[in-house]
Amino acid sequence: MQLVYFIVLVGVLIFVHELGHFAWAKIFRVKVLKFSLGFGPKLLSVRRGETEYVVAMVPLGGFVRMLGEDPNEVVGPQDEGRAFHQQPLWRRFVIVFAGPAMNLAFPLLLLFVVFLSYSELPAPSVGRVIPGMPAAAAGLEPGDRIREIDGAPVASFDELQRIVSEGIGRELVLEVEREGEDAPRRIRVRPRTQIDRKALGITERVGRIGVVAYSPAAVVGIADPRGPAAAAGLETFDLVTSVDERPIRHWPDFERTLERTRGEPIRLSYLRGRPVNLGFATIEALAPGEARIVPDPALEGPRSVGLELAEMYVATIDPGSPEYRMGLRRGDRIDEVDGKKVVLWREQLADWLVASSDRTHRVEFTRAGRPLEGSFKMHRESRYDEEAGREVRKYVFHTANWIPTRMDDPVPNEDRLAFAARNAFHQTGEVIHFMLTGLLRMAQGRLSFKTVGGPMMLYDIAGQAAERGALDFLFVMALISINLGILNLLPIPVLDGGHLLFIAVESLTRRPVSLRTREIASMVGLSMLVLLMVFAFKNDIERYWDSISGFFSDLGG
Q1: 199, 377, 426, 510: which one has the fewest Cβ atoms less than 10 Å from its Cβ?
Q2: Tell me: the pLDDT tens digits for 238-247?
Q3: Which residues are catalytic?
Q4: CATH of domain 316-404
Q5: How far apart are CA 164 and CA 206, in angstroms?
């Protein structure tokens, strides 16, 4: 089946490419002698009118042969005016350009189908507010639902992100619904400009207000070892599932529920992880538990029972890591790093460590209510970076927390056609930008040729995408179609881009490029393509050597 997926993927893209040349040749009444999918011996041949339609054995290319592609070709009186070389320059340009253009346009249709399948979208609800960002300063809270921005309805969190991202330098007026309030409130917030750093060194200026769609699950940490929850038997990393039979979806639910108890006794249900040895592996199973807790009436929320979100609690730590040698252990709560208070693991702790990875860090942490401190420097590791084509060093923090996340129920995508069209255009533009940047990085020597793949890589990608489902297969087909379109536009003779270059030169010099020049350029272009194919096959063999050797071992066995 993987071979079938590969043939379908390549065959469709070649057909689309050649169809561009064919269709415009027919529109301009240029005589098309042959339309071939594939090279080599014919598997199927049908003649319709003046054109022979062929399916050949090797499905790695195709061609449209038109009368007069060779300027020296003899054209009979009956075909006068229908040869390719007899067409005006602009018509020849359109016919040649149509093939790559179809490969760049076809993904719009493919991605439209992919995004059309999005029947539901993330709700425009605030799951978490990042401290120090504009949303926190403006008063947004977890659980807020954003209905409008500047008077325009907001249908999903994706739309919220898009509007905020484009809102650099101006104040946005948000209409917000908050649980427990009858009327919506208006909140003014000005997005902060941030630089998004993507692969290949691509950067983009975007607006951010500091909200995310997901909320942390109600995974608790024992803030007070002598508090009511600890006395009732709760432990750090217990996952609260209900309070007085009211389901708890996430941490904000838990906070609001405890704020309403006012010191009244509560019955709390939870799940607790316990390691289970299966012989071949150890897994953690979640076992249910229940506790009766009497909150301290002098305190509010989770603090009234001696609990807090386990965001900054260490869940896993590598025994050989520098932070372990410093004294950090599972269940410890990290409070400060280098004198800075941290309350978010990823957005504060991890970002700070990465930004200052080569320095020694001073850490203050708490264990069972007892303050401790120590110093460590992150472990430095080396690995081969295929993008850079060299060994790169990075610093690694071998410690992690454990906070599953939850999101509000998705909302219906009520305008699927507009959503699909908008995202198809945006995604196609992003991919074109990314691939052009990749070519530029290769030319600059900043991207290794080891990232180039050949037929074996394409074969593998097609099979993996098809196994994940039809939509993934269409998405991958769109990416490869864009890649094919861009490569064919490179100004290399024997490619469409080379032919376009000849047409451009002819338009400037007012005379055709000489046959001798074309022949030499074609030989140079062919040599460049052969060299590229050698690199691609070499990379494929290195990348899939284990599979290749295993295949031939099976044949020999």
Answers
A1: 510
A2: 999 999 999 9
A3: 18
A4: 2.30.42.10
A5: 8
